[in-house]
Amino acid sequence: MAKLYNTKYYHRDLSWLRFNHRVLQEAADNRNPLYERIKFLAIFSSNLDEFFRVRVSDIRQIKEIEKPFRKKLITKPNKVLKEIKKQVELQQEEFGTIFKEQIIPDLKAENIHLIDHKEFSSTQKEIAKTYFEETLKDKLEISCNPCSNSDTVFIENEALYLAAQLENDTFKLVKIPHDEPRFFTFPKQNGKHYITFIDDILKYCLKQTPQREENITFYSVKKSRDAELYIEDEFSGNVMERIKKSLPKRNTGQATRLLIDNSTPKEFQEILKNVLEVYNADIVMGGTYHNFKDFFDFPNPTSKKLSIEHLPPLPHPVLAHCHSVFKAIDKKDQLVHYPYQNFEPVIKLLEEAADDPQVTTIKMTIYRAASESRLNDAIAKAAKKGKEVVVFIEVKARFDEHNNLKWGKIFEENGAHVIYSFPAIKIHSKILCIERETNGTLKRYSYIATGNFNENTAKVYTDFGIMTANETITEDLNKLFLVLQGKMIIPKPEKLLISPFTLRQTFESLIENEMELAKAGKDAYIIAKMNSLQDKSMIKLLYKASNAGVKIRLLVRGICSLVPGIKGQSENIYITSILDRFLEHGRIYIFGNDGDEKMYIGSADWMKRNLSHRIEVVTPILDQDHHNTIKELIDIQLNDNVKARIIDPDQKNDYIKHGKPAIRAQYETYAYFKNHNKPKQ
């Protein structure tokens, strides 16, 4: 693999591809159940689609910058795009090998046969014809055009097409219906189950048409388009309305990738390139089938348990049994950690707030809302009852704009004050502030989390949340909401770290403190867990801390631009990445502080966008019991030797292969909560 780093910084987009390679490793890991491995193929495919629509389009925009400015860039866009294409094609090849040489044989071993149209039996051919005539035929969109350079054809973003070269210099494009299941299950025969792509039903049946095209071959084609909305001037007019009007542009945006079946003849590739208006740089060679994200719904026609074991979220030892969440918080800060624990306490808090006559005000931020949501229903109910409800909705949360706009309208219709996106900055924090009045006395309750207010993602993303009535924390949070409401300019928090105001500076100060301790010969260390590490200023400071003797242990799930293990630069930095059944999403920052350890959790990664260009909130963990719990959980993750990969200078993604007994962090974490799940008074 080419080294697109200068020994100091690994390119962020190539590092993201290395993260997606870790997803691919899970598909190849036969320690995972068969259908779990199939799911990871789907995740890999879905991730890659988004990468081309977002990151590749961003890099291509750099090419539009005027040359005098573009020359100042450290990494040239053409060089990056060339390396991206190279790495993607290598991964696509590995993907195909895993699918053909591992998944297909393992399915056969379970008497599940994924067959193509050439393998149809006579009975299956008749069934396929019937399904085609009764279900698919009337839904087909077919176009035939002259193969000339002057004629072009529009194909929809991310839609699946079958393309064939015909006689008389014409070609045929057939859009595969998206409103039908991608897979068709034939009746069981001789104890064996047979499944096929509907692509193959179309390939077979289209050859039987009166046009007698028996000898033509259909090849899979898919076009990805730029997902950026390009709001030209966010500082004028209504940002929400501009976004709403821009959303349809995603379906017609510039091509970022044309995925073509790698068996497509060169001559036909040229025809497709011309009529679909793409360049050589846009073409990526794929397999016979595209949109492997459809494998999320791959049927299991057997009665065998081929999926991962169910780990039901555990009830919270306090909040699941208390009569009032507010009274529980009055006694003690409450820590929740889903999906190991149920998300129910967060919903219960808002439902109680909606019904409690003493609650006067609810203020919160929403970044990614669930489509159907009891939590959001509670917010609407509170507003309808006449409480002051202020909701900041980030409608620039990519791919969740429709959902967020939908809920914004519902909240407004019920009387809530909804504030939509600010120009040029995203509100990424996960915060809630509730005000109650008891006998004329105002008391605030806060919830600060690493993850979204979303019941669906809470089932698969690992996140922490803290509920507190601490007066300093709640006042800090109230100040931030005043900023969001336009009633204050700078929040000046005492304990919370808030970007872009105090977060970067505080983290820098904490790192520098560890450096001073190390220079004084004291034990100095930093433990940090995050989704991504990319900010160059932070990386430079970590290098400096490493050289000062600070022991730095990092857990980074995704992008990691820091190059560890380099003598004289980062020899005291060790990084691992855990990828397993749940998506590691929590952010935790721990500083030794000469024995008086400081710990923080919150929404911010160490990326430039989080530290400088978003509203983020990170809270100190003040309750010693919760501090101890999080530290114990981090220790479990630091010792994972089953699903942890080493992030080395080349990001080869080698599994940790030493240590007994085997420690699989996510399962050990579930067991931890199960063992600590006795109700507490």
UniProtKB/TrEMBL annotation:
The protein's name: Polyphosphate kinase
Catalytic activity reported: [phosphate](n) + ATP = [phosphate](n+1) + ADP
UniProt binding sites for Mg(2+): R368, R398
GO CC field: polyphosphate kinase complex
UniProt-listed Pfam families: PP_kinase, PP_kinase_C, PP_kinase_C_1, PP_kinase_N
Domain Polyphosphate kinase N-terminal residues, every copy: 9-114
Occurrences of domain Polyphosphate kinase C-terminal (ranges): 324-487, 496-666
Free-text function comment from the UniProt entry: Catalyzes the reversible transfer of the terminal phosphate of ATP to form a long-chain polyphosphate (polyP).
UniProt-annotated binding residues for ATP: N47, Y461, R557, H585
A GO biological process held by the record: polyphosphate biosynthetic process
UniProt family annotation: Belongs to the polyphosphate kinase 1 (PPK1) family.
Keyword entries, A-Z: ATP-binding, Kinase, Magnesium, Metal-binding, Nucleotide-binding, Phosphoprotein, Transferase
SUPFAM superfamilies reported for this sequence: Phospholipase D/nuclease, PHP14-like, PPK N-terminal domain-like
PTM statement from Swiss-Prot or TrEMBL: An intermediate of this reaction is the autophosphorylated ppk in which a phosphate is covalently linked to a histidine residue through a N-P bond.
Cofactor(s) annotated in UniProt: Mg(2+)
